[in-house]
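Re: beginner question about structure tokens

> Can someone show what the tokenized structure looks like for a real chain? I only ever see the sequence side.

Sure, here's an example I had lying around. Input first:
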Amino acid sequence: MKNIIAVCGLLFFSLSLSAQNDIQFGFELSPAVSWLTTDNNKINSNGPNLGLKLGMIGEYYFRENYSFTTGIGFHFNAGGKLFYDETIDTLSIWTDANIPGDNVYEGGTDFKYSIQFVEIPFGLKLRTREFGYLKYYVEPRMTMGFRTQSKGNILNDAAVDSEEDFDIQSGVNLLNLSWGIGGGVEYTVSSSTAIIGGIAFQSGFTDLTKDKNTLLVSNGRETKEDSKGKFNSIILRLGIMF
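And the corresponding structure tokens:
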């Protein structure tokens, strides 16, 4: 992971040294609301996480208002809560997290995921011509997310303190791929500086949860839990370009 960050940082630094008018750089500080969903109707989303995206943006303009975009940044406190339905008798989850007890819980329990990613987006930005000081844009993008930290909380269980964080990296996949689309405005401050404001949606299409050693018991029948957990996020994009 350190090598990925170092290589990307070196790439941006090298480009900035030779930057011309068709290359722009900037920074993003964007609040985000994220949540988890699954393809198992007994495991449901039950609350979002409020997080933050912080990173560097790069735009290469191959025409006046059309550019390829990329960057590197952090997504802090991504994730959300998953609720295991009351129809489940018992479940076993996060067995490698050193949680006190036998890692067996009753149905009706919430499990909160708090994840940090290093993200590398790739997109295409389409802008309008300038109206006064404003340009409007739309930006479809793909994002590679690398999990750097995963914490979990168990809610609604009397035997476990809901405020205690547990290391659940063994239960979260390292790589998360997602697609997204966003739009907004650029407000021109000077000939080389613009402030960005907008909104974006991001949705994962790879399985975020590993389900390692996760077992469900319903009606006396034990099954290995193998649902696909997806990460989704709405981002209020705030940034500045130079």
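Each token stands for a local structural state, so reading them left to right follows the chain. The first helix runs from residue 2 to 17.
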